[in-house]
Predict the structure of Glycine receptor subunit alphaZ1.
Amino acid sequence: MSSDYRLLPVSWLNNIWQPDSYFKNAKQVTFQEMTIPNHYIWLHHDKTILYMVKLTLVLSCAMNFKRYPHDTQKCAMKIESISYTTDDLIFVWDPKVPLVVDHIELPQLDLVKNTTGDCTQQYATG
């Protein structure tokens, strides 16, 4: 291998464990359809696997417009596991990967900042 990783065939998805992740506040999740596969599996030299998929999300976020047009709104993207607890699975955003693509265009809105955080919740089931 000439690079730090090797691109594996998409068929490997049938042979590796995948987390049962979902977006808690998503109204709609769409796999981006392309002429080439939008799933990627990288096998690194240290035997870790990176699985990537391109998704389009429509999120539901509570807004308060009492001070509009001088208001500030927050909208979180919440990722959870359906069946695993934090003893088994923890989602961590890679700090080297941007949260927002450069030059994002949101007409009439300004993206002031973006951050990551822990939104772990305790449920009665564990």
